[in-house]
Amino acid sequence: MGVINNLREEEQRPAGRCRRCGGEIYAGESYYRTAEGWLCRECLPEAARCWMAGALAVAGEAER
After folding, report:
1. Which domain holds residue 26?
2. pLDDT by residue (tens digit) across 9-37?
3. Burial class (CB within 10 angstroms; exposed 0-12, middle 13-18, buried 19+) of 23
4. Looking at the domain assignment, is residue 7 inside a domain?
5. Distance of alpha carbon 38 from alpha carbon 19, whole angstroms
6. Residue 26, domain member (yes or no)
């Protein structure tokens, strides 16, 4: 016997996808809205490191 699914069809389909990993984001889930598109919560740390890579500095080294 199959499992009865009580969710409406629109609740079963993803509302969007993460622009970084392509993962599905469903209604009721939180995400980050960026200029480039949606970003899931799991991808934020790596995305932030990539976005800030040019600003990375080492304390004690001369600035260029």
Report:
1. 14-53
2. 556 899 999 999 999 999 999 999 999 99
3. middle
4. no
5. 6
6. yes
